[in-house]
Amino acid sequence: MNAFLRCLCCVWSFLALSSACASSRELKSSAGGQREYVLSDDVSVRRLAPGVWIHVTLAGEDFGRYPANGLIVEDGEGTLLVDAGWNPQQAERLLTWAQNELRRPVRAAVVTHFHEDRLGGMKALLARGLPVYGLDETARLAGAAQKQVPSRTFAEQQGVGTLELFFPGPGHSRDNIVVWHPSSGVLFGGCFVKDASAKDLGNVADADLAAWPASLDRTQGQFPQMRTVVPGHGLPGGPELLTHTQELLRAQPVPR
C-alpha cells in the first residue's frame, strides 16, 4: 500500500510539473516584469498598466509579418478593444482571450483609422454584434475602399466607457484618431505617432504632411497629463514620442 501511494504521488507530481511547464509557454514575464500571453504565432498580449493591455498582431507574409499595436482596456465587467488586428482570425483570438483569461468580454471596439492594420479584424466584431466606433471620415474612406465600416461614427470627440476618442486633425491619414485612458495616463497614438526607433514616417501614401505638425500640437494640448504613449508600431514610450514625430516631420520635405 505504501509503495502504491508513493507511486501515486510521483504521478501527481509529474502531472503538476507538466501542467506548470505548459502554462509557462502561454504566460511569460517580459523585461519589465509585466505579464505576456502568446495567443498564437501572430498574436500576443502583455500588461501595460493596471487594467490596460497592449496587443501585438503580425501581418501576413505579403506585409513581411509587420507588427501592429492595439489595446485591450478593462472597463467594469467588460473590456474595450482598440484596433482589431490585421484579420478576423486575430480579432477572434483577442475576443476569446478577454473572455476566458480576464473574464471580461469585449463589449465595444474602436478603430483608429481606415488602414488594414486597424480594421482588418473588424468583420469578426460586427459578426458578434459588437458596436465598433470610428470617425465619420473612417467610415467614408473604408466604404470607398470597399472595406468593412464601423457601425457607430462620430465627428470629433466621443466617449466610450472609460475611453476618450479624439480627432486631432489629419496626419498619418485624414481620419487618424487618438484614444485616451485618463486613469492610467495611457494615450494610444496609433500610426499618428512614431516610435522612438523610427527613422522616417513610414507609409505616407494617405498622409497630410502639412497638417500633421499642428495635429500633434493639438494632441499635446488636449492631453497634457499623458504618461505613456503607444504608437501604432514599435515600443511604447512617453510624450517624447510626439516630439520625435515632429522631428521626423521637419526632416520630411512637404510635397508642393
UniProtKB/TrEMBL annotation:
InterPro entries linked to this entry: Beta-lactamase_class-B_CS, BlaB//VIM/IMP-1, Metallo-B-lactamas, NDM-1-like, RibonucZ/Hydroxyglut_hydro
Localization per record: Periplasm
Family that this chain belongs to: Belongs to the metallo-beta-lactamase superfamily. Class-B beta-lactamase family.
Catalytic activity as recorded in UniProt: a beta-lactam + H2O = a substituted beta-amino acid
SUPFAM superfamilies from the UniProt entry: Metallo-hydrolase/oxidoreductase
SMART domains, alphabetized: Lactamase_B
EC number: 3.5.2.6
Keyword tags: Antibiotic resistance, Hydrolase, Metal-binding, Periplasm, Signal, Zinc
Residues forming coiled coils: none
GO molecular function, one term: beta-lactamase activity
Leader peptide range in chain numbering: 1-22
NCBIfam families: bla_subclass_B1 (NF033088)
Co-factor(s): Zn(2+)
GO cellular component assignments: periplasmic space
Record-given protein name: beta-lactamase
Domain Metallo-beta-lactamase: 67-233
Assembly with partners or alone: Monomer.
Alphabetical list of Pfam families matching this protein: Lactamase_B (PF00753)
Record-linked PROSITE patterns: BETA_LACTAMASE_B_2, PROKAR_LIPOPROTEIN
Listed GO biological process terms: antibiotic catabolic process; response to antibiotic
